[in-house]
């Protein structure tokens, strides 16, 4: 007996986009629920989708307000936001409200599928709380606080380790500068401090800190740790 397909709620008011997503996701075995507006989306939440693809430009409910409402009803479902090119402030706001990731229109189906898989893996990781995180040559033992690249132990300062721990706990998810500052410092608002520690962390875990493979920059928004293997 085969497993039930993963249910994805697509919220977009543009019929061509919904058709593109329906065709592309269905061929990968996903079950698609479609909503052309916010009211319909809230009704379809009762069907417990495993993931939501949300366009911020909706006709009846402003996208960020709908995101807030969805998070009020379901704080765990992964949400991938679709946003117009150049809407950097809108992306940051969506991520701060609890979105897991974003894609800029126009987007490729392969990239969307990869972002969806990363968001679903992150959700499993949060619920499973695996004690050892692995991505490529990087391993982080959250219980014993041991960080390795290959067979080599990496010595981190307390703040560098805290930064890496937060990134590991949300691996695959974009974390905004604001979120990371709030997690790591009580009353610090200058993102320059964060950049310093990210640079120091990269010096210790990246083969080439100028071309990082693990701690990835989302320009103008924040950082993402490469998803676990």
Based on secondary structure, the structural category is alpha/beta
Classify the beta-strand content into a percent band.
Answer: 15-25%
CATH superfamily of the largest domain: Response regulator
* Low-pLDDT regions: none
**Rg, nearest Å:** 18 Å
Number of helical regions:
8
**Tell me, what's the shape?**
globular
Give the fraction of residues assigned to helices. Answer: 40-55%
In N-to-C order, the SSE pattern is: EHEHEHEHEHEEEEHEHHEE
Largest sheet: 5 strands, parallel
- How would you write the strand order of the largest sheet? 2-1-3-4-5
Q: What name is given to the CATH topology of the largest domain?
A: Rossmann fold
CATH architecture of the largest domain: 3-Layer(aba) Sandwich
DSSP strand count: 12
Number of domains: 2
Question: What is the CATH first-level class name of the largest domain?
Answer: Alpha Beta
Mean pLDDT: 89
Query: What is the end-to-end distance?
Result: 27 Å
What would your notes on this structure say?
- The chain is of the alpha/beta class and 229 residues long.
- It has 2 domains: 6-127, Response regulator (Rossmann fold), CATH 3.40.50.2300; 156-225, Winged helix-like DNA-binding domain superfamily/Winged helix DNA-binding domain (Arc Repressor Mutant, subunit A, Orthogonal Bundle), CATH 1.10.10.10.
- It is 41% helix and 22% strand.
- The strands form 3 sheets. It has a 5-stranded parallel β-sheet, with helices on both faces. A 4-stranded antiparallel β-sheet has the order 6-7-8-9, with no helix packed on it. A 3-stranded antiparallel β-sheet has the order 10-12-11.
- Helix 6 crosses helix 8.
- The longest helix is centred in the middle third of the chain and has 20 residues, at 109-128.
- The model has no long low-confidence stretch (mean pLDDT 89).
């Amino acid at each position: 007996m085969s497993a039930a397909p993963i249910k994805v709620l697509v919220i977009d008011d543009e019929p061509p986009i919904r058709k593109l997503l329906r065709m592309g996701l269905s061929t990968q075995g996903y079950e698609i629920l479609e909503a052309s507006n916010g009211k319909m989306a809230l009704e379809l939440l009762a069907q417990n989708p495993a993931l939501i693809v949300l366009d911020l430009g909706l006709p009846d409910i402003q996208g960020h307000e709908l995101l807030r409402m969805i998070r009020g009803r379901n704080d765990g479902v992964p949400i991938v936001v679709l946003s117009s090119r150049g809407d950097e402030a809108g992306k940051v706001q969506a991520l701060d409200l609890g979105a897991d990731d974003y894609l800029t229109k126009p987007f490729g189906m392969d990239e969307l599928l990869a972002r969806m898989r990363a968001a679903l893996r992150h959700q499993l990781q949060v619920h499973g709380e695996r004690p050892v995180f692995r991505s490529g040559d990087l391993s982080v033992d959250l219980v014993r606080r041991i960080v390795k690249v290959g067979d080599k132990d990496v010595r981190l300062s307390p703040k560098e380790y805290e930064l890496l721990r937060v990134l590991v706990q949300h691996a695959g998810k974009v974390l905004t500068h604001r979120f990371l500052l709030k997690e790591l410092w009580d009353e610090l608002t200058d993102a320059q401090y964060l950049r310093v520690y990210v640079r120091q962390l990269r010096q210790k875990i990246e083969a080439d800190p100028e071309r990082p493979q693990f701690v990835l920059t989302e320009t103008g928004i924040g950082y993402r740790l490469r998803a676990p293997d």
